[in-house]
Amino acid sequence: MERKRNNLRIAEIMQEKGLTLTDLTNKIIRTDKDNNQRTITKATMSSRINGNPSLSNLYEIADALGVKITELFPEEDQWQECDKTQKAPSEFKIQTVCPSCGAKISASIKAE
Question: What mean pLDDT is reported for the chain?
Fold first, then answer.
């Protein structure tokens, strides 16, 4: 089984929108110190998608894809509104994936 490097939905959104890696890189334009505009390379974009992208890179990618940055993350990582008539749970458990090594990280918080 192939292990994903991170749990971002970038490739999935690209596929939904019918975009290739080249299409995505052409949508991100950088201006250098001499005011020359250029796109980033496919290799750079690939490392951002499969690695541990910075927040500014995620904003650039989301903008290029035409989605909110929150849509880049899986639904299970999204904040869910709760029914205010129900009592809040006294213990919360969260799980995510390390963007560097792919290991699962779990945490639990107990309210007293």
Answer: 80
pLDDT tens-digit map of 31-70: 888 888 888 889 988 888 888 888 888 999 999 999 998 8
Q: Under a CB-based contact definition with an 8 Å cutoff, are residues 7 and 96 in contact?
A: yes
Q: Dihedral angle at the C-alpha atoms of 43, 10, 74, 47, nearest 10 degrees?
A: 10
Count Cβ neighbours within 10 Å for each residue of 27-56 and write b for 16 or more, e otherwise: ebeeeeeeeeeeebeeeebeebbeeebeee
Tell me the three state secondary structure of residue 22: helix
What pLDDT band is residue 5 in, cutting at 50, 70 and 90? low
Structure tokens at 46: 């690939």
